[in-house]
Fold this protein.
Amino acid sequence: MADNLRNASASSVGLVDEIGRGTSTFDGLSLAAACARHLAGKVRAFTLFSTHYFELTQLAEELEGASNVHLDAVEHDDRIVFMYSVIPGPASQSYGIQVARLAGVPREVIDDARARLAELEWSEARREHAAAPDQLSLFTEAPGVDPALELLETIDPEEVTARQALELLFELKRASGGRPGGKG
């Protein structure tokens, strides 16, 4: 990457895959963003920049000539089907666990990862909801609120496409599975 940053020009074509992945999240994200900004903003090299840092998708709004695309995939019954088509815009979700399953990671590990993911998403949804400057509720939340309900509270139906709605429905089903009140 250092060689690319020093030697790239406006006539260069670059492929960057997961820069910053081998370090802490914030270090990696910061490094990846700085590299992308340099290549797109200063050097103006045509670069395909592959990353798992969703936060980098905002660079398309900040940098002239930058745009987001992703490979289409559909998830159904805990399986993923790759559509092998490039779609404009950032990906709406990650399929890391499904890809790990395809790679042969044991079912027990996949199940543990899904449970941890549901906990992390539930915690994030609660944190985002608590930070939102919404009107205070007249009712207090009951302890042990279903994570699917918490996630549902964070969704703005006016901002969701039909495809995102289908993906959210699967996510809501997963979030309610195995929890009190969830039919799984």
Observations:
- The beta strands are 13-17, 46-50, 69-76, 79-88.
- Residues 1-67 form one domain.
